[in-house]
Each structure stands twice: as C-alpha cells, then as structure tokens.
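Supplementary Methods, section 5.1.

A reviewer requested that the exact input to the structure prediction be made available. We therefore reproduce it here, unchanged from the version used in the analyses.
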Amino acid sequence: MQILIRNIDRSLSQEQITDLFRKHGKVTSCTLVMDPKTGQSKGFGFAEMPNMDESTKAISQLNGLKVGSSALRVKRAANSTITKHRGRP
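The structure derived from this sequence is encoded token-by-token as follows.
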C-alpha cells in the first residue's frame, strides 16, 4: 500500500521518516519530497508497505503523532494499488 505522509517537520530526514514506518512493518520504499531549488524538504512524502495489515496499523499509529514541531498527517495515497484493486478511482 502506498501511504501519503503530510505535515512533516522540515528538519526530519528521509531516514528518520523511514524508521518511523519500519517500527510497524516492512517498508519497501520511503521518499521525502525535496524542493529542487533549495534542496529542502517540502514537508510531505510517501511510504510503500507491502503488507496491508502493517500499512493500516502504521497509518493508525502515526496519523496525528507529533514528530519534531509538527503532527504528522498520514493516510492511504489516492493512487495506492490496494485502492485500485478494490475498484475505487
């Protein structure tokens, strides 16, 4: 399942975000979106977790969690393969 992570404190690294998700299961990828001009985080990213139960648990546990100076907003990404398989747009 692809997971959208928003409201990421801009001082956090991609590795720190990945570690948050690894506590809940296997993470196949984690990407922090960076501004190409400044090289700074744009404050959002994506994680990919292959196990639906682990993904759901990660979303539940991490949504609203304060990390740094911001509370994360975590949800299933709109283009998640799980969503597509269930017939949703």
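The chain has one domain: 2-85. These observations are discussed further in the main text.
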